[in-house]
């Protein structure tokens, strides 16, 4: 048999056991062990002092796990018997004999041990279920906190699901000729072409390629059929809209040919090599797709158009990472990809970091992209013509944290950006990980933006990079962001507005325009707002209406023009204008204004009425205009033209406001927010738009509650209900709240483990709350912001999913270390709960304190200049701040305020292993139980031999215990003795 020794070899043949197995028939067919003479005479001797010192000539090593006595081989004179108790049972006569030889009450056997021995002896008698009050309280507190966090995560407010279900008729054509001659993964992956049944013309011989190629890449264990919602909308939109627009056709707009790859539902998120294999296959598929357009049998394109040289990539989840990886592979064909759109793709960090290959692959990909965009010259940047758009679903996505979709650390704002679905105009919905692929409102916006960037007159099949970025910002951003572009300064006047010389529709400087109802004059009417002179700081023009803005020559009820005086002098002619709007009514001395239509810069806002519930309600949105005074430098008037010829229920509010009144900065910290909250009152004479900026609100780990209280209008009904926008500058996350009263605020800002952004100032800009309210009501607005602690705890789940598994492993390792340490000192392997109790009283608090201080120092060092930062690594001269790994350390928190997360997770990590502790397994592991023969009453008997505790002063093993008991719960009688061997055996007697 195998035994553990203390570094010495043990000869089993040299053992003379003190308890030998001898077959003794007692009439019941049972055999009983017989105590050898080596043990019998000393025990039965009446002497008060027994010499149990080991033989000085013996060299037999001690083994704490041995289950039998060991005697020097030189003193062995009899036949060698087994060294441990076997499965043989006791007979009743043998039991009585043993009891007679070793009476339980005998004083000769009562040997007192040291205090350490007594403590070890008490601990071994303790039930595995038993634990100290400290351990019990800490474990229950940690387990209760964990359950509370999970409950808060499940029930946290993430917004309603407002996605409509799309309609489609899919047909998938497999590219069977894309076989082993083109790729070594032909037997593993497949390439398909999508055709919308009844919409896309195709035959078995000609698959009908006619437009710009698009390749869809599914995510981790995803299906290639997820493309059907996007592809179906592309086919239907082209047939119903684009095909009938001759201007767009002349501009190079054509249909979209959707291809997709079947990755056989591979787990790319868990295996780095799978990620590389898929990227290699994508590059080979790109080359094959481009070759199809050279074959006239498969293409119906105009032969005068150039053959495509690039493909648009759309990736869902890990498919977006595969798309970026493809551009780093050696088999990538240069410029074969210039546009990538990803949905819920974890760009910044791998979603799970269990596989080192995935982490290493991510590092290689991100380093390549950062290095490419850090080149000074465009010729040295292989990604110069690539635009990357990352779209995240927000808090509803519980598969991939939307923080990881950020491109702030990878791509400059000239080549890409991150946006949330709640930001996209006319969508305004947060989406989960799967609905982002099929949501009807979202897919319509994606397809419209793709048609706007397509230009088949160019080999790249798309417009230039700068123009693509402008189009994507127009479709995906609200238009309220600082990076949003305005077309008005770049346009030429196209409308000549003629007014009466003595018109009384010119408002005074600084006066607000309010129209309650359109068409009251039953003829077109123009209202002029004078533009303040340049040099006045902080002036901004805002206009809000429930009517859509009318283009020039349109049939709408409202048109907004920015005008300057147009004098009729020699050389000037009215033929320069495509639109002549004469409102002079034939009077003499009329005034002529050269105007620009502002409809292209119109911004859609969710309609907010007293009956509104969600921003995505199926009602016509509000129309909004906003310009800084610098954008209106060449203009003198803003003309709001009411073109309705009959009374209608529309309304308009327009004004110039000062930033001192419209923007309210706050200097409140997280500590004050947590203790007292933030409370403010907006005056009754406030502007229509009021913005509250809170720079300290930038962490993804905290949730808040915002209360908006209005007192109602005094003289007349409000034109609209208060509308609130929550926004951050980076990433572009906006949330709208209609008919706002109470708001649950959560955000995706500075998140744990995220690499620092390319522009540090953008990350710490904080949250802005923009409130549109009716300024004509004459009543104030009360705002109250407090920290929502329960929902803040729920935010920890998505950001620290791996920590909930890693920290308990640390606790288990500490307890196991303590168990082995006690075992080395005493020879007794203490139960898990007892080891946990010892850790809680010694090393664990010190460890948490050290880790808390370390976390605070890491967070504080991020605010220091590189020269003063003690963690600034200078090992590589080419290393940039993006490559630093400080954000990967410990909890990855980037704010010293969150130092308390270390003890919080420490408390949880104690409750987790304690809740799954199995005392039965501990009993089996740490005591040796042997079945014995049944007693005379028929009940079974078991003999349990525990470990022993050494006595260093006399080199003895004291406290070894053997017990007998029945399985019906009868009492045990315990026998203690000292012997020469580390694991002595003793025989107990039961009643």
Automatic annotation (TrEMBL):
GO biological process: endoplasmic reticulum to Golgi vesicle-mediated transport; GPI anchor metabolic process; protein transport
Record keyword Cell membrane present: no
Region described as Disordered: spans on this chain: 1-89
MF term (GO), any: phosphatidylinositol deacylase activity
Signal sequence interval, chain numbering: none
Entries under Pfam families matching the protein: PGAP1, PGAP1_2nd, PGAP1_TMD
Residue span, GPI inositol-deacylase transmembrane domain: 803-911
Class of the enzyme per the UniProt entry, highest EC level: hydrolase
Membrane-spanning residues: 129-154
GO cellular component: endoplasmic reticulum membrane
Chain ranges of the GPI inositol-deacylase PGAP1-like alpha/beta domain: 209-452
Localisation: Endoplasmic reticulum membrane
Biased composition (Low complexity): 63-89
Top-rank taxon: Eukaryota
Topological relation to the membrane, as annotated: Multi-pass membrane protein
InterPro entries, per the entry: AB_hydrolase_fold (IPR029058), PGAP1-ab_dom-like (IPR012908), PGAP1/BST1 (IPR039529), PGAP1_TMD (IPR056824)
Main function: Involved in inositol deacylation of GPI-anchored proteins which plays important roles in the quality control and ER-associated degradation of GPI-anchored proteins.
Record-stated family: Belongs to the GPI inositol-deacylase family.
Protein name listed in UniProt: GPI inositol-deacylase
